């Protein structure tokens, strides 16, 4: 308000002269400035409730003799509030508890006596002080991290970071004890043989090969020693049932859920208010477990994730690295948390900083925020498929199908079998027993296969499937077959005790028994169950080859060398008796032809005794032909199965040892000598210069097949009764 200049004239009536006096009243303009931190007069400012606020009255020209006063109204004032400015023009607006807009309705300049000198011009904008209820608004969110994010954020995981669900499959397996007896030559005493009170049970074997020996008063028979029954009159069991147990334990493991817990803080003061939260920071407080102690162990539902570099409980609320939150800005702090227990868990934050408000004294700002972390563990369906028959030392595959049946991904998923807890089975060589998937997503399915080796024989009769909560599924059985598709037999071949004398490193009897188990499975397979192209092996050939092991074990006890027994077993398993069988077949053909010539069409001219002899000859011929065919079928089995390859590898080990000791020429000479003495259809020799083992095979028709082994066995192994052994490096 500008004041004009008034000239007052005083006339002295007495003196007839004029005296003139002028009084100058200065021009005055009274106003307020709510933001002294900014240039120019500001008519808008903000503060927080319960915090006093200062502003200034401007335009005082003689503060010693003038008084400035303001009148304020607002929602927290019952009546207008009149405040007087200090000599410097500052006005202290007291702290208000009621947020809202407080208006400065009047600004007046008064004399020291209280008379109005000048009011604030009415045409000016009405100044307003905005009292805020809050200046910092927070929001807490959490989300699970993916496997890639876990790696990107430097989270360090160890075995304690995994949830483990256990399962176990138990199987009762049953089979019968099939004894292979050792033929023994005994004097014919015309009565039952008795040893130590135990009667022998003779078996019928083919003794036609002994006719040429012409030893008087000798017959070939066999016997077994069996324990007497517990009670007289008890019927003797035909077989001994074998009941065993197979246990396959394992676990499903997956990484604990890791979460990004994000605290966001927004300065909600209006843009330009100048309110800043300086050095804003937050400290996370995780919930404690049932014991009430926050220790980070399994009792606590959450714990801070281990990271590299390590994270701290207190972090700055930042935006582009800055920790001062200005008006309208949102800053954040991320905390990485590991979920240990399923459920919804509350996470608290302590927030601190310095509240800087223009016109107010800086104050320490503290507050809290709260959020939740929801830990949901995945659940799984685990279906396992196992063969219904297993054989000792025979590899097979266990199939497992795993499905994540939850809406939660399983990071770093693994399915593992526990080799230390297995019973009746073991992991195959090279099998780790563990399968992993980086992430098994919701609804996702994976198929796994484990290579196992049974350590017992038997057929699965009963199963039990146990699993922790979180695993559902089924245990299914499939037909147990060998690697060539032959249905496996659950029965156990029991060899004569003499086989214990055979060489053990490697175990000759064990590798032979594995091959015989395949042959026995072939012999006892149900009709029509053999794969196409696989011929039947007779049970009597299996028994013969098993008894040959016992016989060689007996010879070993009498002083035969390991190499000698190996060569004999090799020849026997390579069809050494084929020549004799073919001669027997030819002889039977001659006898049968004579009787057919004598009897005429349909042997009508034969008398009853001749007819009976003719029938026996035909029956015997069928047996001989079946035995011959069985040798070829057994040879096919040896050359096409893993069991046969393992048997050949065992033989090769001993032959290499023999070649190293005797030299290749002497070894071949020994083999040829034994082959000729047995009239075997196999001859072999070597070309020492190239360490080539050349095998010539002569079958029953005297047709010769030959090949050379120079490290490639494929062509050789396609020949009947062919075997290839590597003698490279030996002289």
Structural write-up:
With 731 residues, this protein is α+β, with helices and mostly antiparallel strands. 20% of the residues lie in helices and 37% in strands. It contains 9 helices and 38 strands. Strands 13, 18, 27, 29, 31, 33 and 35 form a 7-stranded mixed sheet that branches. Helix 2 (508-524) packs antiparallel against helix 3 (539-557), helix 3 packs antiparallel against helix 4 and helix 5 runs antiparallel to helix 6 (608-640). The longest helix has 33 residues, at 608-640.
Task: Please give the structural blueprint.
Blueprint: E1 7-11, E2 18-22, E3 31-33, E4 44-48, E5 53-58, E6 66-73, E7 81-84, E8 90-93, E9 100-111, E10 116-119, E11 128-132, E12 136-144, H1 147-152, E13 162-179, E14 183-187, E15 194-195, E16 198-199, E17 218-222, E18 241-255, E19 258-267, E20 276-285, E21 302-304, E22 314-316, E23 330-339, E24 343-356, E25 363-375, E26 380-387, E27 389-390, E28 395-404, E29 410-417, E30 425-427, E31 434-440, E32 445-454, E33 458-467, E34 471-478, E35 492-494, H2 508-524, H3 539-557, H4 562-573, H5 578-599, H6 608-640, H7 642-662, H8 664-677, E36 682-687, E37 692-698, E38 704-709, H9 714-717
Parallel strand pairs: 4-11, 13-35, 26-34
Antiparallel strand pairs: 1-2, 3-5, 5-8, 6-7, 6-9, 9-10, 9-11, 12-19, 13-18, 13-33, 14-17, 15-16, 18-29, 19-23, 20-22, 20-24, 21-23, 24-25, 26-28, 27-33, 28-32, 29-31, 30-32, 36-37, 37-38
Helix pairs in contact: 2-3, 2-7, 3-4, 4-7, 5-6, 6-7, 7-8
């Amino acid at each position: 308000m500008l004041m004009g200049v008034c000239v007052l004239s005083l006339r002295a009536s007495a003196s007839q002269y004029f005296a003139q006096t002028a009084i100058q009243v200065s021009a005055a303009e009274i106003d307020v400035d709510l933001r002294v931190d900014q240039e120019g007069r500001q008519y808008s400012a903000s503060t927080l409730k319960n915090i006093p606020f200062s502003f200034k009255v401007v335009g005082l020209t003689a503060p010693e003799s003038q008084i400035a006063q303001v009148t304020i109204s607002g929602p927290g004032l019952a009546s207008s509030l009149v405040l007087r400015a200090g000599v410097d023009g500052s006005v202290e607006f007291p702290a208000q508890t009621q947020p809202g807009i407080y208006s400065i309705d009047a600004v007046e300049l008064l004399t020291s006596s209280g008379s109005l000198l000048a009011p604030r011009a009415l045409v000016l904008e009405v100044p307003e002080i905005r009292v805020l209820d809050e200046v910092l608004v927070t929001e807490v969110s959490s989300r699970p991290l993916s496997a890639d994010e876990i790696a990107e954020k430097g989270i360090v995981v160890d075995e304690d970071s995994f949830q483990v669900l256990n399962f176990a499959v138990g199987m009762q397996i049953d089979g019968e004890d099939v004894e292979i007896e050792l033929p023994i030559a005994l004097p014919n005493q015309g009565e039952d043989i008795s040893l130590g009170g135990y009667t022998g049970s003779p078996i019928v074997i083919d003794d036609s090969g002994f006719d040429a020996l012409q030893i008087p008063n000798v017959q070939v028979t066999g016997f077994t020693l069996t324990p007497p029954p517990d009670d007289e009159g008890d019927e003797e069991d035909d077989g001994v049932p074998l009941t065993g147990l197979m246990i396959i334990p394992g676990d499903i493991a997956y990484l604990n859920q890791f979460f990004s817990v994000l605290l966001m803080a927004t300065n909600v003061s209006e843009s330009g208010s100048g309110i800043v939260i300086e050095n804003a920071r937050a400290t996370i407080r995780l919930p404690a477990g049932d014991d009430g102690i926050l220790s980070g162990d399994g009792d606590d539902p959450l714990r801070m994730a281990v990271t590299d570099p390590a994270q701290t409980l207190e972090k700055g609320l930042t935006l582009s690295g800055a920790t001062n939150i200005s008006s309208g800005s949102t800053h954040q702090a991320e905390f990485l948390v590991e979920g240990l227990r399923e459920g919804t868990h509350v996470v608290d934050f302590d927030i601190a900083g310095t509240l800087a408000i223009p016109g107010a004294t800086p104050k320490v700002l503290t507050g809290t925020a709260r959020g939740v972390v929801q830990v949901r563990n995945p659940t799984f369906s685990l279906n396992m498929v196992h063969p219904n028959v297993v054989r000792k030392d025979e590899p097979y595959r266990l199939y497992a199908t795993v499905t994540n049946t939850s809406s939660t991904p399983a990071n770093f998923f693994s399915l593992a079998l526990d080799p230390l807890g297995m019973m009746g089975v073991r992991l195959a060589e090279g099998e780790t027993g563990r399968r992993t998937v980086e992430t098994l997503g919701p609804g996702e399915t994976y198929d796994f296969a484990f290579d196992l080796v049974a350590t017992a024989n038997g057929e699965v009769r009963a199963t039990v499937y146990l699993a922790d909560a979180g695993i559902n599924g089924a245990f299914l059985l499939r037909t147990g077959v060998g690697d060539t598709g032959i249905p496996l037999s659950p029965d156990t071949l029991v060899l004569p005790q003499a086989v214990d004398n055979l060489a053990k490193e490697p175990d000759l009897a064990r590798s032979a028994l594995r091959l015989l188990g395949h042959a026995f499975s072939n012999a006892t397979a149900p009709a029509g169950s053999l794969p196409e192209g696989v011929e039947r092996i007779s049970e009597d050939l299996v028994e013969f080859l098993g008894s040959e092991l016992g016989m060689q074990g007996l010879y070993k006890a009498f002083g035969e060398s390991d190499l000698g027994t190996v060569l004999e077993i090799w020849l026997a398993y390579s069809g050494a008796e084929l020549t004799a069988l073919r001669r027997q077949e030819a002889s039977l053909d001659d006898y049968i032809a004579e009787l057919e010539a004598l009897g005429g069409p349909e042997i009508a001219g034969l008398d009853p005794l001749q007819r009976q002899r003719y029938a026996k000859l035909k029956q015997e011929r069928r047996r001989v032909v079946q035995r011959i065919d069985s040798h070829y079928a057994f040879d096919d089995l040896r050359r096409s199965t893993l069991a046969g390859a393992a048997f050949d590898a065992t033989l090769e080990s001993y032959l290499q040892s023999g070649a190293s000791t005797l030299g290749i020429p002497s070894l071949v000479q020994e083999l040829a000598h034994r082959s000729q003495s047995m009239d075997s259809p196999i001859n072999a020799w070597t070309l020492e210069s190239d360490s080539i083992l050349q095998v010539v095979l002569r079958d029953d028709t005297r047709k010769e097949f030959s090949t050379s082994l120079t490290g490639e066995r494929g062509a050789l192994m396609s020949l009947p009764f062919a075997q290839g052994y590597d003698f490279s490096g030996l002289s």
